[in-house]
């Protein structure tokens, strides 16, 4: 049996090294596997199994876990990387995501049948299916080859049309596909069945680049918003994509799930996800805005992130149909999805539809539709989502419409407007939980507690021309200070400005120009030791209890600005080998970017792989602060010569060698100048704040002169 062929770039990915390292291996090691194809080309192909064996025989620094080793130590993320490595060596007509998904489904069903797992949904038909004469039930696909494999896969697909769709990539079985299936099955052989879906989901998000998969946090947020009224009933997603949100809403609940998508390939992926989730889901193919495969389905919840801004609905969509009871839809408006959702609601049901934020304030037909929905009491809440929630695929601002059948909102005379803030610190999660609680109070009691991010607005005010439904606008209006409050703020800012004290700069010492001064390489200075940061190869992270915190430029910058030292990653101590941990008085140099060298007072941290740690012997004739000054000066020179964010090259830095007393005097001068600079910056900031407050007060008509 052969294995997939791989290129040098693939070998580099497998071994976690650069492509140049692979080139050097080929030149220096006579036992490196010979190419199997295109040996004379710039991109020869190698046998993956031979390469993995060669890597396994290398010293531990280059060893990568070979095929067939225990998968129990592999996370879903690691498994998906391995799967992608193998897919690179396969050429075929099927998309890689389809082949990988079909392989996971085939192995899942094989193991589930052999262990007596009760299959639900599309796979339930297998419990009564009859094997062809002479065939047997394998416990895994590992090692099954030839006609036996084809017979078994055909049996799995014959049980129902949806199973046939899920396994369609195996309608033909070329050697490379069989090899891939064996490799995948071997890789997941120790993975619990309930974790297969997690592996597939990572592959989907990587492959589809977010086009058909809601962000995890959004999917959970929608599920939490809908949860109180959904212990049972029907949930519909008219633009289900691969079904992330639909399955998330239905998790651990007795719900009937119905999903529709217009794309057959996306539908097939959703079918595979439903099989791996072992969940009954009614998945249909078609145009929800046209012939609507879900016509006649009335749902307790309609939850969807439909495609936005459709320029042309197509000939299948009748814009004059009676179904559009709130007004004729217009192209590029997402309002058609709002109407479609309300059409499918039961009495007491709710729709949660994600659209672009611009739909809340656009004029013309979108405004006419908003007003009609408001007048009929169909809008219960508007929730704006954090900026960039769909990043990096799109940075379009978005919002959730919470809708009901006309007159069935909590209070048809008021609407809840809420804004989920984008946290200033990227490590902090958005305030989804707070918003969920606000909405639940609104649904249950018809009131909310007063917060800065949510308010109730009378419908009569929302019907004013041009005001829109953007929560931020209404929150700013409500939270605007009174004229007296603005005046008090101006007086406070003025007093803060008056209290700023800028220290006088001491007389500089009598500097004299040098004619010739000896310079020494930083790496050659006596008593100075340079340590590279710990080599971190994913996944190396561990928890805060057993791991050592990692010092990065971002963490240090936050510490300098706020005084808060908060690690974001931890590393297993065993992976550090001989790398030293930080001590007070060390110098941290960020290897990439524009953050200069800094003397630190941090103890017991590991330095990130792109950074350096410089340690100065206290008995050496070199002052650490002077060294920082010289490194920073050289850093600015390097940055001015190279655009972007170049990698710091400490080996090229020369340090002027002067007497130790002179070094210390110069360091004191630099420190005094830095202190004065910081005070001036504080003064300018307070001056800017005062100017902004006066402008705001004038613009709001809150003050005049006496």
Automatic annotation (TrEMBL):
| Keyword Methyltransferase attributed | yes
Q: What EC number(s) would the UniProt record show?
A: 2.1.1.72
Q: Which UniProt keywords apply?
A: DNA-binding, Methyltransferase, Restriction system, S-adenosyl-L-methionine, Transferase
Pfam families according to UniProt? N6_Mtase
Q: Which domain of life is it from?
A: Bacteria
An example GO BP is:
methylation
Q: Which reaction does it catalyse?
A: a 2'-deoxyadenosine in DNA + S-adenosyl-L-methionine = an N(6)-methyl-2'-deoxyadenosine in DNA + S-adenosyl-L-homocysteine + H(+)
Which InterPro entries does the entry mention?
DNA_Adenine_Mtase, DNA_methylase_A-5, Restrct_endonuc_typeI_TRD_sf, SAM-dependent_MTases_sf, WH-like_DNA-bd_sf
MF (Gene Ontology)? methyltransferase activity
Q: Does the keyword Nucleotide-binding apply?
A: no
Q: What sequence ranges are listed for the domain DNA methylase adenine-specific? A: 208-421
Output this protein's name. Answer: site-specific DNA-methyltransferase (adenine-specific)
């Amino acid at each position: 049996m052969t294995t997939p062929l791989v290129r040098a770039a693939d070998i580099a990915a497998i071994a976690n090294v650069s492509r140049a390292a692979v080139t050097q291996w080929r030149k220096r090691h006579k036992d490196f596997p010979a190419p199997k194809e295109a040996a004379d080309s710039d991109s020869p192909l190698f046998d993956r199994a031979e390469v993995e064996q060669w890597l396994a025989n290398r010293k531990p620094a280059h060893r990568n876990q070979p095929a067939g080793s225990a998968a129990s130590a592999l996370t879903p993320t690691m498994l998906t990387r391995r799967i992608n490595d193998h897919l690179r060596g396969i050429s075929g007509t099927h998309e890689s995501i389809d082949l990988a998904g079909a392989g996971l489904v085939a192995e899942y069903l094989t193991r589930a049948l052999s262990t007596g797992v009760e299959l639900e949904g599309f796979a339930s038909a297998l419990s009564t299916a009859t094997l062809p004469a002479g065939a047997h039930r394998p416990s895994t696909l590992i090692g099954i080859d030839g006609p036996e494999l084809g017979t078994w896969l055909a049996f799995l697909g014959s049980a129902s049309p949806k199973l046939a769709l899920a396994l369609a990539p195996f309608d033909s079985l070329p050697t490379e596909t069989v090899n891939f299936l064996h490799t995948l099955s071997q890789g997941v052989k120790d993975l619990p069945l309930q974790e297969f879906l997690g592996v597939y989901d990572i592959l989907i998000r990587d492959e589809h680049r977010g086009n058909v998969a809601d962000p995890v946090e959004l999917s959970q947020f929608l599920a939490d918003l809908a949860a109180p009224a959904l212990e049972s009933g029907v949930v519909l997603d008219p633009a289900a994509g691969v079904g992330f949100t639909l399955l998330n809403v239905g998790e651990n609940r007795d719900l009937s799930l119905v999903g529709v998508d217009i794309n057959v390939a996306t539908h097939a992926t959703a079918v595979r996800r439903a099989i791996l989730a072992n969940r009954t889901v009614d998945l249909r193919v078609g145009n929800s805005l046209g012939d609507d495969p879900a016509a006649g389905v009335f749902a307790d919840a309609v939850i969807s992130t439909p495609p936005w801004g459709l320029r042309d609905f197509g000939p299948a969509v009748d814009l004059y149909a009676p179904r559009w009871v709130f007004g004729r839809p217009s192209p590029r408006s997402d309002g058609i999805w709002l109407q479609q959702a309300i059409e499918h609601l039961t009495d007491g049901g709710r729709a949660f539809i994600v659209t672009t934020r611009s739909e809340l304030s656009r004029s013309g037909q979108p405004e006419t539709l908003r007003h009609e929905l408001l007048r009929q009491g169909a809008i219960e809440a508007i929730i704006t989502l954090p900026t960039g929630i769909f990043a990096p695929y799109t940075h379009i601002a978005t919002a959730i419409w919470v809708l009901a059948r006309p007159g069935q909102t909590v209070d048809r005379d008021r609407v809840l407007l809420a804004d989920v803030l984008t946290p200033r610190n990227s490590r902090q999660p958005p305030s989804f939980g707070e918003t969920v609680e606000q909405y639940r109070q609104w649904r249950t009691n018809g009131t909310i507690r007063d917060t800065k991010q949510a308010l109730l607005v009378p419908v009569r005010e929302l019907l004013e021309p041009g005001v829109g439904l953007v929560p931020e606008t209404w929150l700013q209006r409500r939270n605007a200070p009174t004229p007296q409050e603005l005046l008090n703020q101006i007086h406070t800012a003025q007093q803060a400005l008056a209290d700023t004290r800028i220290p006088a700069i001491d007389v500089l010492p009598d500097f004299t120009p040098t004619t010739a001064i000896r310079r020494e390489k930083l790496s050659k200075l006596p008593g100075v030791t340079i340590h590279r940061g710990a080599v971190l190869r994913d996944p190396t992270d561990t928890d805060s209890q057993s791991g050592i915190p990692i010092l990065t430029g971002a963490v240090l910058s936050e510490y300098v600005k706020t005084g808060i030292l908060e690690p974001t990653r931890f590393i297993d101590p065993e992976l550090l080998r001989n790398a030293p941990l930080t001590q007070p008085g060390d110098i941290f140099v960020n290897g990439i970017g524009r953050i200069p060298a800094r003397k630190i007072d941090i103890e017991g941290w590991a330095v990130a792989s792109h950074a350096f740690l410089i340690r100065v012997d206290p008995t050496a004739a070199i002052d650490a602060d002077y060294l920082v000054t010289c490194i920073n000066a050289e850093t600015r020179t390097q940055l001015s010569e190279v655009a972007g964010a170049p990698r710091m090259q400490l080996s090229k830095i020369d340090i002027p060698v002067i007497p130790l007393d002179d070094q210390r005097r110069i360091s004191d001068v630099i420190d005094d100048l830095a202190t004065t600079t910081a005070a001036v910056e504080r003064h300018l900031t307070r001056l800017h704040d005062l100017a902004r407050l006066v402008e705001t007060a004038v613009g709001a008509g809150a003050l005049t002169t006496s």
